[in-house]
Amino acid sequence: MPKKKNTSKETTPKKNKIKDIKIDPKKIIPKKVKLPKIKGLEGFQPVLKVVGIVILIIASLALIDLGVQYLNNDYSVAIVNGNRISKNQWYDRLAAAYGPSIASQLIDEEIIKTEAKNAGVSVEESAIDTEVDLIIDSIGGQESFDAALVASNLSLEELRDQIRIDLLATQLLAPNLEYTEEDVKAFFDQYSDVIFPEETAQLEEGELLAFEDYKDRTEEVYVQQEVQNYKATWLAEKKAEYKIQDNSTGKPEYGFLTITTNIINNLIDEISKGETPEETE
C-alpha cells in the first residue's frame, strides 16, 4: 500500500525574544486623589490648618517650659513672685552659719570610726535595731516615732548612722570608765521614770520600780551617758594626735604627693597588722 504523505508541517520552536519595553510612569502612578469637599466647610479649611499649627506650637512651648521649670526647680530652693533663690545661695548661707559646727561633728565621727577600726571594734545591725526599738517604745509607738523623724528632718538611715557612731564610741570608751553599783543605783533613782516611762505609768501611787529588775538596762543607759560626758575630752586628746585639715575654717592646703603618701601609709599599717587590702574590705 502506498504510504500516506504527512501533510502536517513541522513546526520548529521559535526563540522568545524579549523586546525593550518602555514604561510610562504617568500611566503607572495614579493621579492625586482628591477628597470630597464637605459642603459648607470649604471656607473653614485654611482656618483649621492655622488652628492646628497654633495648637502644635503651644503644646511644644508648654513642654519646653515644663522642662525649664523642672531644671530651675532642681537648682532653686525657693521662688518669690517668680524670682528664684538658688541653692548655691542657700548652701553658702548654711555653710556660713553652721559649716564649722557640722564639719567639727563630721571630723569627730571620722576619728571614732578610725579608732574603732584600729581597735577591731564593730557594731552589729541587730544592736542598732534594738536601740531603734527602744526609742520607738520610749517615744510612744511607731506613729510618734515617724512624726519625730519628720519634725527633726531626719531619715531612719541617718538615725541609724548616729546610733552606730554612739555604739562605737561606747565600746571604745566604756572600758576606761570607773563607776560602782551605787552610782548606777543613784542614777536609777533619779531617772527611772525617764528610762522606763511605760513601766512607771503602770505603777500604783507611791509605788516604785525595783532596781534589781531593771539593773542591766539602767547600767547600759548610765554607761552611754558617761561616755557622752567623757567623749569630748577623749576627742580633744585624739585630735592632737591626728593631722586634720578643716577647710570649713581655713584655706585648703596642698602638699607634694600627699594622696599617694596617705595610700602607702595605710597599706603599711594594714600589712603591719597582718591584714591585706582584700581582707579589710
What attributes does this structure have?
single chain, about 280 residues, mainly alpha, Triger factor/SurA peptide-binding fold, two-stranded antiparallel sheet, 11 helices, about 5% strand
Structure, explained:
- The protein is mostly helical.
- The chain has helices spanning 25-28, 45-74, 87-119, 125-139, 142-151, 156-173, 181-195, 197-201, 215-241, 258-272, 277-280; strands spanning 76-80, 83-86.
- The chain contains eleven helices and two strands; from the N terminus they run H-H-E-E-H-H-H-H-H-H-H-H-H.
- Strands 1-2 form a two-stranded antiparallel ribbon.
- Helix 3 (87-119) packs parallel to helix 6 and helix 4 crosses helix 6.
- The protein starts with 24 loop residues before the first helix and ends with a helix.
- The relative contact order is 0.05.
- Mean pLDDT is 80; it is low at 276-281.
